[in-house]
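Moderator note: this is an archived Q&A kept for reference. The question asked for a predicted structure of one protein chain; the sequence and the answer are reproduced below.
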Amino acid sequence: MERAIKERSILDEFCEKFCKIVDKYTQYIIVSGFVAIASGRVRGTEDIDMIIAKISKEKLVLLHEELLKAGFICVQSDDASVIYDYLQEKISVRYTYQNMPVPEMEMKFAKDFLDDYQLQTRQKLPLTGLNVWFSSINMNVAFKEQYLKSDKDLEDAKHLRVVFKDQINEDEIRKITQLINKYRLGN
């Protein structure tokens, strides 16, 4: 099932351009609301959430420099060493286009086994029409239903269950829920 051909949104273009650069330096995944939006759910957002595998400070400097050359800026700092320190402290950083406050890419390092598992099970979703890596549909459903639980997140999960019904694996969702309980909820 292919998403109907449409004009690319600013968010789509921003995401693909940013991800193409990050992909040269490390593994990444797009998570949360943008997964549902890219899959056809109509709702607003101004940011995209990204988790990247941990990289060295030297590699982050190169990544940051290439992002700057491509017209992105980091909201927190121009200094890659400061950005690296934020990421090491498990604090996300935000990139935007220069002179444009939105959209934003919120980027953070993988922080635990659960994030590493998300990176290992990442997938491209042809339905979205985007050439980017997403966390798995089952991962997104589990996080939205079992961890985030806001009305918006529950609607996103419902949408993903309908659109990707052939990919939904309840056993995998239960497994992920157990990981969420262990690594995020401390149960």
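Archived answer notes: The two ends are 38 Å apart (CA to CA).
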